[in-house]
Please model this.
Amino acid sequence: MATATAPRTLREAILFFGDYCNCRKAVEAIRWPDGVVCCPRCGSENVTYL
Model:
């Protein structure tokens, strides 16, 4: 999550991660830093959103 808008205080984090879109983008960036969403078990890129 190396963005200019990343929260630096607890108050900023609560406000930032309280928004679903911000939270989802941050988690996706941590989980899939190269941007390719794949199955953590088999590595397949044929995945669906739950």
Observations:
- The longest helix spans residues 20-31.
- The chain has a mean pLDDT of 89.
